[in-house]
Amino acid sequence: MKLYQRAIGYNPGAKQWCRVVMDQSTEEMIRKMDTGKMTVLEISGAKWEDFGFREYCNAFFPTFDICKDIMNKKFDLIIAEQVFEHIRKPYQAGVNVYNMLKPGGYFLITTPFLIRIHPSPDDCTRWSKTGIRYFLAECGFKLDDIDSHAWGNRRCINANFIDWIPYNRKRHSLENEEDFPIVVWALARKRDEADRNDNQE
Fold first, then answer.
1. Which residues on adjacent β-strands are paired with residue 40?
2. CATH architecture of 3-200
3. DSSP annotation of 188
4. What is the pLDDT of residues 178-197, one digit of tens each?
């Protein structure tokens, strides 16, 4: 496993306790889509490579910097998992994502909240479940088109002070304490022409 992957808690061989509920939720969100027809970009990851998309590509920092780079094609879905907390200009990155989406396309973003600082190479920003909705709205999405979630509990937060803890079903609770979110995620949809026409009538 690459050093930067360990720094952000990514381990393809083990489920991380802090990610179990988030991973289940995001996979359910995407499985509801017609994935076999989708063109997908994953930013700084390869988790979704074998998910059955019609066309998949990924782009990694620093070769591709989402704060300043835009690909010369449009996507049905863009995924950024545990990325946006590390970038220095998240608003510009969000605008770039919005501009790379096809009308009707989706942006899946996951970020930590009550997780210790973990530079890779920087660690800059945290959003709450509410905050990520307003952040995405600033980037161009409409609030009504943003579905945001959060999960966490005090035991998981305390455990992850020391290391990224692999999930043990017998020992680790998946109870959600709303006041102690450890991870936050959202699925935002870019409106298409039909949406805009409906709003004008």
1. 56, 77
2. 3-Layer(aba) Sandwich (3.40)
3. E
4. 999 999 999 999 998 767 65
